[in-house]
Predict the structure.
Amino acid sequence: MTSELLSGPDLGAGYLHQLSFDRDGEGTTFTFHAQDGGADANGPPKGPLDVFGFVHPPSACMFGGPRCWHRRFLLGFSDTSRVRHAYNRNRFVLQTMLDQVYDRAPVTVATVLPELIQKLSGPLARDRVDWFIGGSTAALLLGAPVAPGDIDIGTTREGVDRIAALLAEYLIEPLAPTDRPGGGIVRGARAFVGTFQEGTRVEWAVPIEPRTPLPFEEWSGRMESVRLAEVSFQGHTVRVSRPEYALVRAIEKRRTENAAAISGLVRRMGPDGELLDALLSRSRLPAAERQALRRQVLGEFLG
């Protein structure tokens, strides 16, 4: 099996970008490459790309050398044009995404949500496709004063494909089976909704292999496993995941301000103790922190 170059070298956000493919009997593996482009790319880049799911290959890359970042997608060769579109949009918006992560540039979630919900709500309702907004954006829609870094969408296997079609112009990763570090092999996509200079990352995926979800699991692709609430947003009824999910993640990631805001939201709504206990039971937080969080959130409701 040999690798062939489809595009590049291209410059963007301090990186030198290339798009390659490998073909074998099972399909075509497309690879986004990115290496430090130095002064030629207005570098150095502001930070590493692991925050966007890129990884270093186990051996030196024939295109980018030993420190080349990779994102890989398994598709048919007939999908080349949409892979190329996502590759180009990714490198065009990469500077903005790096600024948001490493320079705390504003993430315009509130600006993007009206367009995103307008694009998704009607078509998905007509197609009877289940979906919801999760993570800290769900907490924002429920009234918590938080500043999400992106928008996470939960959906079904059918929904993954339909959302990708509705957001095709914004994709920065093609709809494909891919490896999400920490999430395993999934079928999903990523988009950057907005302009090259201002917008928000949007992510959605489901596991490739069918399995029984954990109790109350948020991103399993099985809607019956997740605890949801409803909000009204600009004339649309939008389902969102309960704020207990975002609360536990905020504590795990040491996002103190978000955790305090979401904790207040949980208490105002009335906590779902069964859900919180399930999330804490499989959290990586130390036992003492899990117990303290449970007492803080549930204390007054336990009598």
